[in-house]
Amino acid sequence: MFLPKYPDNPTPPPAHTHTAHTPTKPAPARRSALPAVSVSTGAVVAVLTGGVVLTALLTAVAVSAISVAIAAVVLRSLLREHNRR
Questions:
Q1: What's 17's DSSP letter?
Q2: Dist. CA 2–CA 64, nearest whole Å
Q3: Which residues, in sequence order, are CB contacts of 24 under 8 Å at separation 6+?
Q4: Is the pTM of this model over 0.70?
Q5: What is the pLDDT of residues 29-69, one digit of tens each?
Q6: Distance CA 12, CA 75 (A)
């Protein structure tokens, strides 16, 4: 099932057409603009987990700050009304 299939009649490799008097120039080395980076799966999982945890912490801090602000406004209005009486 997973075995490679070979052709029935393999073709012979092409003959070299270079003569002994013509010097061959090596192909120039191609360098990519970005270096090849190998990233392991564990590193990707660690970065994603860290991002999720930091996002959850930021959300918790924001919700707590909003709750404290609302409580402060309510207490301020209650105290203001109490002082007017």
A1: -
A2: 58
A3: 18
A4: no
A5: 776 666 667 778 999 999 999 999 999 999 999 999 999 99
A6: 91
3-state secondary structure of 75: helix
Between vectors from CA 56 to CA 52 and to CA 57, what angle results, nearest 5°? 120
Distance of CA 61 to the CA centre of its chain: 26
The per-residue pLDDT for 69 is: 97
Backbone angles phi, psi at 30, to 5 degrees: -95, 125
Contact 18, 24 (CB under 8 A): yes
- Structure tokens that stand for 52 in this block: 């999720």
Helices (H), 1-85: 41-84
For residue 5, CA distances in Å to 2, 38, 64 come to: 9, 32, 65
